């Protein structure tokens, strides 16, 4: 514990390796259970950001307003470290509200906290309402986003007289990927990174395309194999109705606003249903949350209880999907094409403008060719191959994906020469096995959060946090408190 405090209060520009030997992650974690519950109290600001970092002709010196949130409530001015959240695919307030851990940690370490919004998301639109047109969408790349953060950090440090303060980046999911990339691409600016639930391998095209939906299935299976069987059985019944083109019956069983009328509609319905299970697995937190939708506590358990609540499997499946889509209880019917968008990410793109931006990223640099097959998972066979991706992306965005580019540029699994990165993954999270699960060196540390869903560890402390994690942390704290 003393070591990590030393790390954060010295104005070193590097994490020292010695510190990383001292189980830094558990020091991060230990904070959560020592009674620090803090409100973010951020101020919303805008930064004048370069539109195109890599071509001096296209946009000249054009700029746009990039949103960021900042709080110096805990900061020891000019001296304490800077905790910088590398924003991902959405409104930055969502991430700030759901990453209370970072402010709790900042309170402990007298840190300045900044949450930066990713270009093309939320209010950080480089071309305002034209941002999602072709070719304006073309400045949406991982490289531009990283350059935004590098430039922003550098300038804000000057403005705030913080040039000597070390910067630690934080991120969850795609934001965690960005944290890793910041550390390997801009080690001159970033001293270390905490990447929570960052699937840096699977999104680089490494690994098994069946892994994601297999791991979603495993979460429901762990409630009991009968849960998995009920889901599979319900999809089987839906398939039979579809084969008989019994569209009226499908409409009434699933409370659809309009009767389906084609194989495409059935495919879409299957995608919508599968997406509900995906979201419940990802957001399987032990307390209710409002993050990427509203979820009850332990949604996987709630889903399984619903799936097993009577002998009518189809109505059980409808009600299970309703846990996610009908959390308000206000839906009178399910509108297939309004509730779910099919896109280049088979795990879902969400809705609204943010979904357009994410679809474009999934069509260019981020590989998400995951399939379900009803063998290694409980879902209907729905492939999404590299060929499917290419076809879709050239139609939708007039781009051809470059499956190898992310791996080439950000090292893929050949990370051993990087340093000062902590990769944390919850074992309930279907994204976990797309990330780094084993430590690669004394300063590239993998941590398992037992009982943890998608970046649970970034969330503020909660009395319902898994006991296993608390126990785990206590051990580490004890270890660290030894002289
Ligand atoms: C660059 O910015 C300056 C100051 O805002 C402006 O006067 C100038 O016209 C710009 N140049 C180009 C090439 O856009
Ligand atoms: C949504 O939930 C409410 C409250 O439980 C329920 O009455 C309604 O039927 C649900 N809507 C659909 C489409 O299932
Ligand atoms: C899944 O596989 C089972 C066993 O082969 C089969 O009976 C069922 O129809 C399949 N379900 C779907 C939705 O394809
Ligand atoms: C985390 O769990 C995975 C899966 O059980 C395992 O393969 C890995 O070695 C564990 N990693 C650490 C750092 O304990």
The ordered H/E elements are HHHEEEHHEHEHEHHHHEEHHHHHHEEH
Q: Helix content range of the residues, please?
A: 40-55%
CATH architecture descriptor text of the largest domain: 3-Layer(aba) Sandwich
CATH T-level fold name of the largest domain: Rossmann fold
Overall number of domains: 2
Give the strand content: 5-15%
Give the overall form.
globular
- Radius of gyration over all CA atoms, rounded: 23 Å
Bound molecules: 2-acetamido-2-deoxy-beta-D-glucopyranose
First and last CA, distance = 10 Å
Query: Helix/strand-derived class?
Result: alpha/beta
Q: Name the strands of the widest sheet in spatial order.
A: 1-2-4-3-5-6-9-10
Report mean pLDDT, rounded to a whole number: 88
Protein model, in words:
Its EC number is 3.4.14.2. It is an enzyme of class 3 (hydrolase). It is found in: Cytoplasmic vesicle; Lysosome; Secreted. The protein has about 475 residues and is α/β, with parallel strands linked by helices. The protein folds into two domains: about 35-205 and about 405-455, Alpha/Beta hydrolase fold, catalytic domain (Rossmann fold, 3-Layer(aba) Sandwich), CATH 3.40.50; about 210-395, Serine carboxypeptidase S28, SKS domain (Four Helix Bundle (Hemerythrin (Met), subunit A), Up-down Bundle). The chain contains 18 helices and ten strands. The protein has helices at about 1-10, 15-20, 25-30, 90-95, 100-110, 140-160, 175-185, 210-225, 225-245, 245-255, 265-280, 300-305, 315-325, 335-340, 350-365, 385-395, 405-410, 465-480, and strands spanning about 45-50, 65-70, 80-85, 110-115, 165-170, 190-195, 290, 295, 420-425, 445-450. An eight-stranded mixed sheet has the order 1-2-4-3-5-6-9-10. Strand 5 (about 165-170), helix 7 and strand 6 (about 190-195) form a beta-alpha-beta unit. The longest helix is centred in the middle third of the chain and has 20 residues, at about 265-280. The protein is globular. The protein starts with a helix and ends with a helix. Bound molecules: 2-acetamido-2-deoxy-beta-D-glucopyranose (4 copies). One 2-acetamido-2-deoxy-beta-D-glucopyranose (NAG) binds next to loops.
């Amino acid at each position: 514990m003393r070591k990590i405090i030393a790390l954060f209060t010295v104005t070193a520009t590097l994490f020292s390796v010695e510190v990383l030997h001292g189980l830094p992650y558990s020091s991060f974690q230990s904070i959560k259970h020592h009674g620090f519950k803090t409100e973010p109290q951020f101020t919303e600001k805008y930064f004048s950001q370069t539109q195109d970092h890599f071509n001096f002709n296209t946009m000249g010196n054009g700029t746009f307003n990039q949103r960021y949130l900042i709080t110096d409530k805990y900061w020891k001015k000019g001296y304490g470290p800077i905790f910088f959240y590398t924003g991902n695919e959405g409104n930055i307030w969502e991430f700030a509200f759901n990453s209370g851990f970072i402010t709790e940690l900042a309170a402990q370490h007298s840190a300045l906290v900044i949450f930066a919004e990713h270009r093309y998301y939320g209010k950080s639109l480089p071309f305002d309402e034209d941002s999602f047109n072709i070719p304006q969408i073309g400045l949406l790349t991982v490289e531009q986003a990283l350059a935004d953060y590098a430039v922003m950090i550098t300038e804000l440090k000057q403005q705030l007289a913080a040039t000597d303060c070390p910067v630690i980046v934080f991120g969850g999911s795609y934001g965690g990927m960005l944290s890793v990339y910041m550390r390997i691409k801009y080690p001159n600016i970033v001293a270390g990174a905490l990447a929570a639930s960052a699937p840096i391998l699977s999104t680089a095209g490494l690994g098994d395309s069946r892994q994601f939906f297999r791991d979603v299935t495993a979460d429901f299976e762990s409630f009991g194999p009968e849960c998995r069987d009920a889901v599979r059985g319900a999809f089987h019944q839906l398939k039979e109705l579809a084969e008989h083109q019994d569209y009226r019956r499908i409409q009434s069983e699933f409370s659809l606003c309009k009767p389906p009328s084609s194989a495409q509609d059935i495919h879409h319905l299957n995608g919508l249903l599968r997406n509900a299970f995906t979201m419940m697995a990802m957001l399987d937190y032990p307390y209710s949350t409002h993050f990427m939708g509203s979820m009850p506590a332990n949604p996987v358990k709630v889903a399984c209880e619903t799936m097993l609540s009577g002998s009518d499997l189809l109505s059980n499946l409808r009600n299970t999907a309703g846990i996610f889509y009908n959390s308000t209880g206000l839906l009178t019917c399910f509108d297939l094409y309004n509730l779910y968008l099919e896109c280049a990410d088979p795990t879902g793109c969400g809705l609204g403008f943010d979904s357009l931006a994410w679809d474009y990223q999934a069509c260019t640099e981020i590989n998400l060719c995951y399939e379900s097959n009803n063998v290694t998972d409980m879902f209907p066979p729905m492939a999404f191959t590299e060929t499917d991706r290419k076809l879709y992306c050239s139609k939708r965005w007039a781009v051809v994906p470059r499956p190898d580019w992310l791996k080439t540029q950000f090292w893929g699994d050949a990370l051993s020469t990087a340093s000062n990165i902590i990769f944390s993954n919850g074992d309930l999270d279907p994204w976990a096995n797309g990330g780094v699960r084993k430590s690669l060196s004394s300063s590239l540390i993998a941590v398992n959060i037992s009982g943890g869903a998608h970046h649970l560890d970034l969330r503020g402390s909660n009395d319902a946090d898994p006991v296993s994690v608390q126990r785990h942390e206590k051990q580490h704290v004890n270890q660290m408190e030894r002289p």
